[in-house]
Amino acid sequence: MPTTKRRSSKKEVILTKAAQMFREKGFAATSMRDLAERVGIEAASLYNHIKSKNEILEAICFDVANRFMLHLEEVEASDKTSIAKLERLMRFHIQEMIENYEEVYVSDREWKHLDEPFLSNFRNQRRQYRKIFASIIEAGIAKNEIKKIDAPTAVIILLHAVSGIESWHRSQAKITAQELENNMVTILIDGLRKH
Q1: Is 150 in a helix, a strand, or coil?
Q2: Of 51, 80, 82, 164, most Cβ neighbours within 10 A?
Q3: What gap in Å lies between CA 83 and CA 130, rounded to an integer?
Q4: How many CB atoms lie within 10 A of CB 107?
Q5: Number of C-alpha atoms within 13 angstroms, CB side, residue 136?
Q6: For residues 102 and 23, is the Cβ–Cβ distance under 8 A?
Q7: Are 94 and 180 contacting, i.e. CB atoms less than 8 angstroms apart?
Q8: What is the separation, in whole angstroms, between the first and last Cα of the chain?
Q9: Is 78 a domain residue?
Q10: How far is 90 from 67, CA to CA, in rounded Å?
Q11: Confidence tier at 7 by pLDDT (50, 70, 90)
């Protein structure tokens, strides 16, 4: 499993607290004053570390997007079967949603508040990610490893299933993270596998 990032600088603390607040209240409803209070500094001091709320959102969204894209490219370039690639991708998505929940949630739900040109760049990166993901499924179909399905639809279903981990975070009587990951992989990947 990937290790949770350790944030140490004041800017990194601000980004962590901002991700928590953006998830709880939403980007639009979170003020810089609220954030300064959560971090434990004066609002004026916040601007010594960060220029704007939008800069914070950009940092969170692109940090997550770049991690996911680097992992996808690494998986795509591997010599594994398509099913093995999909399993690796799903395990990564699940682990990120468990270990870096706030950041992943914010990048998935609040990216629409990005300013241009970041909004277009982020939208293009999301589109490219899904296209590559779908191409792995299509390769599996061509090799007779995966059932004949519409690959883009499968990608949407897989990614939406992972975003449902949000309810696991809220659950009082939850299974372990490892059980959750294994159950999800079994259900999602075996559903695609051609027997």
Answers
A1: coil
A2: 82
A3: 16
A4: 25
A5: 29
A6: yes
A7: yes
A8: 29
A9: yes
A10: 14
A11: very low
Q: Give me the domain span that covers residue 169.
A: 53-192
What's the mean per-residue pLDDT of the chain? 90
How many domains does one find in the chain?
Answer: 1
pLDDT tens digit sequence for 49-75: 888 899 999 999 999 999 999 999 999
185: CATH: 1.10.357.10
Nearest to 121 by CA among 194, 57, 33: 57
The one-character DSSP state at 193 is B
Q: What is the Cα–Cα distance from 78 to 82, expressed in whole angstroms? A: 10
- On whether the CB atoms of residues 137 and 86 are closer than 8 A, the answer is yes
Residue 12 lies in a domain: no
DSSP string, 104-128: HHHHHHSGGGPPTTHHHHHHHHHHH
Domain assignment of residue 161, yes or no = yes
